[in-house]
């Protein structure tokens, strides 16, 4: 049975291409809409979306019990400014100017949250105009700053989240964000960090998404190899500037309603608009299904750095190390940290397979508890995928040129432990 037939014949999918109330439209096809919480399992999501890397939209029923859906929103579906000010008024938040361009993004500044809300109210009163431009609160680490707030619960479908598992272990960063912005605010064309998956839930308001399947972005590069800032700009029609634009497919368009969650596949470039005053919660995440894509991305990033500074290779004794440093400054990670990332993920799963969970760990919202929730076979799957990527990393010439003595355990020892844990679990 093909995907279209499956979607049309199953009660919990809505085919956007034929529905008069469609919130998404894929030219020549559709994006699956998942309606019922009780009918859709993690295995369904794993099989039909994570592994094939396909987008989908979850209905508002998946978020109806969130605290933010109740208290952050007024009776008529607007942001509840008074409640938000009471809870977060003194916080400092990152704000982007959607009317300005800085390199290939919008310039950002830090503002007190109460000042941003004051701006937003005035922006609405002035007919969505301001001399300050259209300001968009983006990439706010609210969960990290206010961990005890009843804001949301990560749906089980997105719980195999290696990025946040790793950075939580370091207690230094996370990839959980809140976005708030007025009608007309938007995010320029991009793909997510490390070519990760992302999910985005509208607490209130509506968004329009333009999605390009992985690989399609290559047709959108200009004659210098640069991706566009805005994929709707008329300049893309100029063949002398964008010579391959006519070869690109039209984007997948999704209009996301309040309460709905959009799943963005790994490596899919996208551009997003707020059609109303909107608040959303977003996570970036990597797991066993797309960690190989992350590894390919890192290799491409290092190769790009090496091309840029190749003329310094001979006079620079530590050229390979400098390439790693530059890559880390641009992407946030280098090869040695990627090894440590794989190690932390592997050791958490090995621990559960070898020792199980004690009562205290299973009762808490911990990585090991999440691993146990998804089951031992999922932990084995994660380890198998880690073995493949770790084997490739260990054989990589650029990795072998680094000083690996600081890595503990050594890559060979970690690989041996991984394979032994898998064999033992499958007995």
UniProtKB/TrEMBL annotation:
Its cofactor is Fe(2+). Keywords: Iron, Metal-binding, Oxidoreductase. It comes from Galbula dea. Pfam families: JmjC. GO terms for biological process: positive regulation of translational termination. InterPro entries: JmjC_dom, JMJD6_ArgDemeth/LysHydrox. Belongs to the JMJD6 family. It catalyses: L-lysyl-[protein] + 2-oxoglutarate + O2 = 4-hydroxy-L-lysyl-[protein] + succinate + CO2. Residues 143-302 form the JmjC domain. GO terms for cellular component: cytoplasm; nucleus. Gene3D superfamilies: Cupin. This is 2-oxoglutarate and iron-dependent oxygenase JMJD4. The keyword Metal-binding applies. It comes from the Eukaryota. One of its GO terms (molecular function) is 2-oxoglutarate-dependent dioxygenase activity. The keyword Transcription does not apply.
